[in-house]
User: What shape does this take?
Amino acid sequence: PQDLILHQSWIQKEEQALRYIQQKAAEMKFNNIKIISAEYSFDGKKLTVSFSSESDEKVDLKRLRQAVSRKFSPTQVDIRQIGPRDVAKQIGGMGACGLDKRCCCKFLTEFSSISIRMAKEQNISLTPTEITGICGRLRCCLIYEYDQYVCSRKKLPKKNKIVKTPVGECRVIDVLPLKEAVIVETPDNLRKEFSLDQIQFE
Assistant: This one.
């Protein structure tokens, strides 16, 4: 109980510190940065302030750091810049897929490198709203099944490949990597699905 009371106390102080630092940054005309959070260590000896910046240039926050250090002395103040994904993680919110919390808030402890190739490999629409997260970067979930898609595609024929099936030679019109199957067009112009073990190809 004592620990919980102490924790609640630090949360209240964090909110007060955040408001003060945001106000101070505005007074000092740091218009190109956004103060995201202020977090005390459990013993209260350190205050970590996170900020984001829209500019790629390094921001000199020496004046702000000095002002904050004076205000919260003798607490050690650490002001650090975080990226767009870390900002989204701290803000929280519902995921685009409908989860009550975004992956970055729920269980991700580090961010993997995501590329547009991952979306293409999984045949996901490249519309920005479909593949971009609230952070403005490609969604972290694009990597979850990527390796499985790559592995399965190596076993399967490509589109337009002629394959032998139980109904004769057919042309592949779609590939289903997760099912390890293909959809073909039969000589009768019908569409049929066959698993990998039902077809033969070179």
